[in-house]
């Protein structure tokens, strides 16, 4: 009697377990592979996108809405085109007593790569940039402007940032985008997202593409920007590309990668792609290596864990470092 | 490159610079000129083919200028620190700016090479045109159809407001196959125009409606009259006769004799508020207007009075007459019962034009935003030679809205967007929470009806699971608690948390209910995973699966499990943030609710095991493992109101509720451990059930006995006796 009852119980228990498992799997497949939710827009003047995969599309939509709130906050810090942004205030007043932690962090990262690269990456290059964008000037003027470019003259405190010389100005172009990209990716992780492609000026993959394969990102050929030179696989990492093929600033072949020491554009490498766990590192490294050249690449990369680079030489050959 | 030097300011022209030492031999000069022109062409050609920045003026060929800003005769580089732009002039009048998106934004499109779109923006803030000079957009190159569409698309930007997000024109989808490039170019033009103009005009920031004293564009008196910026009296000889008739002067002649027949014009007088340049500067001569701007005290108001035709003008002649008090006798202005008469010193006269500015000092108590009236007087000559004034016309005026700058509409803060966009969800949740509040407030009435309680309870749990959990994805989780704890130390603005309406509303409701009633309101009613467990447990019981619950002593120990999991998560959050996200997987919420089991197998197995345990031990996860439940249980000690009713007999001798409690939150002593209570109200249903609650049942039986009374009892006894 007791045995029969137990067997019946056991069967029921097994049955219940099986139904529960099947139910869960059934619900799971009903949801199926989620459609990505995509947002497109501008962040700091760059065409940007966020692609989020989440089983519940409403959750993805609402998360995008929340991320835009954060992007808006960061834009108020880093934009060079907002008169009230922290960076513009810093540039016009030469000092900020109460900078946001984000601005301090980006300056910290900028100065770190500036020291490591002996100034090949230099956030204080803004005066030179403006000089070049104005169309240049005489040798003396260039010398004067070069005197304003000195990362060692940036005083960074725990909360304050200041320039040691009047007339200095900073640009965080690229590295600020890297920070925003990292920031949003971190928030997505915190929100439980496992798959996302964050392209807010820099590219960062959270997890891998649907199907478990890494995201495939095409890198253009610096000699022919219309052609994809190679694909890199990106999973849980950031990618930054620095190349001289973009904008030509002056007739002598100068481009948007400028050597802060000389005010000219280096000719050693035509394009540098860096893959690094954090976008801010990837951007810092790609810019620094572009300027400092191939020889400096291994040393710079060694300072940042799990970072590697693909270098395009002027002669067209490609090497990995 | 013909016409290029015309478009450059003199010091910008290399040719001029090279030529200035005039002492060179003529031949050399000619040679140099040729070389300079040739170089200039080379640079410009290079600029076009390479899409390099290069000086902006070199890219502004006459064709480009004509395309982006029709009617412009001259462009001149603006020398300031703002976004690079060239000022565009129509004759001597500045009409707006021409800029290149490459200089201003360097915005890349689909390819990472920034494109160069040159566009114009008028001083009225509207785009005047745009053409693409250079791009490397892969889906546009060598594709004539798309390139044509792009040209049309950019052309259609004309007239759009210069700000990102402006509506109108063609959709980027018009350039089929190159939508991203088109959108990027459109946005770059709109944003660049806003930047170029915004840097150079002060108009941008007004905090209250302000009269537009900045913007100017040439407009005719007819245009201004049509838009209401001028009040105009066109008086014919017939009108004059009628006015004189009305004044009782029909028998006399006017001071200024008429010319022509009754339909000929006697006077054509306009009035308007002159401080907006569109009115004042267009009305009087430029020098006269400059006197108002630069030669009068700050805050001086001016009314423009002009006579455009006819024989009668608004000035008269006697304002020069000291004995007449230098009064402009033919006009007056009235507002709100106050009449302003104008005297010669109050007037800036135009030369060569009968168009004057009538000055009102800053303290004149004249409100230019409010309506006012202008009176025009003429005189009739009486037989004795004296003059009698009469009112010729009366002009009502109010400044048209086009002349008033409005403060930018108060933009909703970024966090408000989700609240506006998500209103249907918010409404559903608010209704649900109102229902829940009603359930809790009227729990006495509800729990007296066992069936109703069962339906309401299961119905609400189903709603919580399906809608809150699976559809809206609003499962509150320990992650939210951690975020709120970390909030003061992180830089994320308050706005970031506010941008999640459902979670914010649920959190507030949970916090309030926690303080008032205890943790059970959230755990028992609003937690989707809790609802899933409870509903499954009910199915399990209906299927007569064996139920198991730990003894009271063992249960007390097991309860510590959830506090341990909470402690583990909290420690990891601060010690090793990377590991904390793994610890947060203790909660199967993400797997079972937000992701609806569409996750990696290990997570699904874990969730299914927890749910499986729940079939035999109801809400085992909630009671023994849930970190969020632990958080609420810790804070439960603070709750203020005890709504669950007890009787003296509860626990001694009666143990009915103790056994009926699905989560065994009632101790042997009869006391409800509120930190473990899920407010399911099952015990209250028993409490009110006079067939099951022993003390109540006893009373009921006594009452029934009393009701039946001794009467029916006696016959029975009698009957038995009889038997």
From TrEMBL, chain A:
Mg(2+) binds at residues 174, 283, 287. It comes from the Bacteria. It catalyses: L-threonyl-[protein] + FAD = FMN-L-threonyl-[protein] + AMP + H(+). Magnesium. Can also use manganese. The chain crosses the membrane at residues 12-30. Keywords: FAD, Flavoprotein, Lipoprotein, Magnesium, Membrane, Metal-binding, Transferase, Transmembrane, Transmembrane helix. Gene3D superfamilies: ApbE-like domains (3.10.520.10). One of its GO terms (molecular function) is transferase activity. Its cofactor is Mg(2+); Mn(2+). The keyword Flavoprotein applies. Its EC number is 2.7.1.180. Belongs to the ApbE family. This is FAD:protein FMN transferase. It comes from Devosia enhydra. The lineage of its organism: Bacteria, Pseudomonadati, Pseudomonadota, Alphaproteobacteria, Hyphomicrobiales.
From TrEMBL, chain B:
Residues 642-671 form the 4Fe-4S ferredoxin-type domain. It comes from the Bacteria. InterPro entries: 4Fe4S_Fe-S-bd, NosR, NosR_regulator. GO terms for cellular component: plasma membrane. It is found in: Cell membrane. One of its GO terms (biological process) is positive regulation of DNA-templated transcription. This is NosR/NirI family transcriptional regulator, nitrous oxide reductase regulator. It comes from Devosia enhydra. The lineage of its organism: Bacteria, Pseudomonadati, Pseudomonadota, Alphaproteobacteria, Hyphomicrobiales.
């Amino acid at each position: 009697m007791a045995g029969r009852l137990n067997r019946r119980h056991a069967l029921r228990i097994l049955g219940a377990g099986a139904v529960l498992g099947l139910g869960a799997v059934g619900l799971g497949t009903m949801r199926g592979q989620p459609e990505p939710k995509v947002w497109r827009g501008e962040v700091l003047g760059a065409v940007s996108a966020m692609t989020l995969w989440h089983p519940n599309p409403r959750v993805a939509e609402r998360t995008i809405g929340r991320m835009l709130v954060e992007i808006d906050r960061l834009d108020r810090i880093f934009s060079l085109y907002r008169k009230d942004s922290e960076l513009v205030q810093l540039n016009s007043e030469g000092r900020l007593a109460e900078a946001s932690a984000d601005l301090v962090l980006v300056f910290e990262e900028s100065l770190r790569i500036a020291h490591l690269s002996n100034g090949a990456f230099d956030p204080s290059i803004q005066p030179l940039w403006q000089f070049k964008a104005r169309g240049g000037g005489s040798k003396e003027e260039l010398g004067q402007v070069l005197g304003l470019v000195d990362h060692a003259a940036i005083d960074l405190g725990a909360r304050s940032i200041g320039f040691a010389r009047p007339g200095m100005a900073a640009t965080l172009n690229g590295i600020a985008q890297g920070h925003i990209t990292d920031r949003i990716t971190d928030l997505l992780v915190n929100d439980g997202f496992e798959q996302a492609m964050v392209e807010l000026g820099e590219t960062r993959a959270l997890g891998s593409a649907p199907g478990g394969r890494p995201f495939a990102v095409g890198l253009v050929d610096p000699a022919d920007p219309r052609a994809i030179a190679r694909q890199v696989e990106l999973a849980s990492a950031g990618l930054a590309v620095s190349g001289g093929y973009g904008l030509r600033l002056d007739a002598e072949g100068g481009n948007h990668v400028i050597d802060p020491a000389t005010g000219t554009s280096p000719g050693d490498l035509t394009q540098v792609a860096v893959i690094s766990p954090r976008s801010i590192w990837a951007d810092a490294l790609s810019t620094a290596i572009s300027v400092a050249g191939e020889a400096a690449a291994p040393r710079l990369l060694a300072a940042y864990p799990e970072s590697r680079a693909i270098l395009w030489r002027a002669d067209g050959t490609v090497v990995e470092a | 490159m013909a016409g290029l030097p015309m478009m450059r300011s003199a010091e910008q022209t290399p040719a001029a610079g090279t030529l200035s030492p005039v002492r060179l031999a003529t031949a050399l000069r000619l040679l140099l000129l040729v070389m300079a022109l040739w170089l200039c062409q080379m640079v410009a050609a290079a600029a076009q083919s390479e899409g390099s920045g290069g000086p902006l003026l070199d890219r502004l060929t006459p064709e480009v200028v004509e395309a982006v800003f029709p009617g412009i005769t001259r462009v001149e580089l603006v020398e300031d620190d703002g976004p690079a732009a060239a000022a565009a002039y129509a004759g001597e009048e500045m009409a707006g700016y021409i800029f290149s998106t490459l200089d201003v934004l360097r915005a890349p499109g689909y390819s990472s090479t920034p494109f160069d779109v040159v566009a114009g923006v008028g001083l009225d803030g509207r785009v005047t045109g745009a053409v693409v000079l250079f791009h490397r957009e892969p889906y546009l190159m060598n594709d004539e159809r798309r390139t044509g569409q792009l040209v049309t698309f950019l052309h259609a930007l004309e007239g759009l407001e210069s700000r990102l997000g402006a509506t109108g024109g063609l959709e980027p989808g018009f350039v089929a196959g190159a939508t991203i490039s088109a959108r990027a170019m459109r946005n770059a033009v709109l944003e660049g125009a806003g930047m170029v103009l915004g840097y150079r005009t002060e108009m941008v920031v007004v905090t209250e409606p302000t009269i537009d004293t900045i913007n100017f564009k040439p407009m005719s008196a007819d245009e201004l009259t049509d838009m209401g910026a001028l009040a105009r009296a066109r008086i014919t000889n017939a009108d004059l006769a009628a006015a004189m008739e009305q004044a009782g002067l029909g028998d006399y002649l006017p001071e200024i004799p008429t010319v022509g027949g009754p339909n000929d014009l006697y006077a054509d007088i306009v009035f308007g508020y002159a401080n907006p340049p569109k009115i004042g500067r267009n009305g009087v001569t430029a020098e006269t207007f400059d006197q108002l701007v630069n030669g009068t005290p700050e805050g001086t108001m001016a009314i423009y009075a002009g006579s455009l035709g006819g024989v009668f003008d608004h000035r008269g002649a006697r304002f020069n007459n000291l004995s007449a008090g230098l009064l402009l006798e033919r006009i007056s202005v009235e507002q709100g019962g106050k009449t302003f008469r104008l005297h010669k010193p109050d007037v800036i006269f135009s030369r060569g034009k009968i168009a004057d500015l009538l000055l009102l000092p800053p303290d004149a108590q004249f409100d230019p935003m409010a309506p006012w009236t202008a009176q025009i007087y003429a005189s009739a000559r009486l037989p004795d030679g004296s003059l009698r004034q009469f009112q010729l016309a009366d002009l009502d005026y109010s400044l048209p809205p086009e002349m008033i700058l409005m403060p930018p509409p108060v933009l909703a803060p970024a966090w408000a967007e989700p609240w506006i966009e998500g209103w249907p969800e918010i409404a559903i949740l608010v209704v649900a929470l109102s229902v829940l509040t009603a359930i809790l407030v009227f729990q006495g009435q509800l729990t007296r009806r066992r069936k109703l309680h069962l339906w309401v309870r299961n119905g609400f749990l189903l709603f919580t699971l399906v809608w809150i959990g699976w559809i809206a994805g609003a499962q509150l989780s320990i992650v939210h608690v951690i975020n709120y704890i970390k909030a003061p130390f992180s830089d994320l603005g308050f706005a970031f948390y506010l941008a999640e309406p459902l979670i914010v509303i649920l959190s507030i409701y949970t916090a309030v209910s926690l303080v008032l009633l205890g943790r059970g309101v959230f755990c028992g009613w609003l937690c989707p995973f809790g609802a899933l467990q409870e509903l499954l447990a009910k199915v399990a019981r209906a299927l007569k699966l064996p139920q198991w619950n730990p003894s009271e002593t063992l249960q007390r120990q097991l309860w510590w499990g959830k506090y341990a999991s909470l402690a583990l998560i909290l420690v990891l959050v601060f010690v090793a943030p990377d590991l904390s996200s793994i610890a947060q997987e203790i909660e199967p919420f993400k797997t079972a609710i937000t992701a609806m089991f569409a996750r990696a197998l290990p997570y699904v197995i874990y969730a299914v095991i927890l749910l499986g345990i729940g079939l035999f031990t109801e809400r085992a996860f909630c009671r023994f493992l849930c970190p969020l439940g632990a958080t609420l249980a810790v804070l439960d000690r603070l709750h203020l109101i005890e709504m669950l009713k007890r009787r003296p007999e509860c626990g001694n001798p009666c143990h009915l509720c103790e056994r009926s409690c699905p989560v065994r939150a009632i101790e042997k002593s009869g006391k409800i451990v509120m930190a473990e209570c899920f407010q399911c109200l099952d015990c209250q249903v028993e409490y009110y059930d006079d067939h099951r609650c022993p003390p109540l049942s006893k009373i009921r039986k006594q009452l029934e006995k009393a009701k039946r009374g001794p009467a029916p009892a006696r016959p029975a006894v009698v009957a038995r006796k009889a038997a």
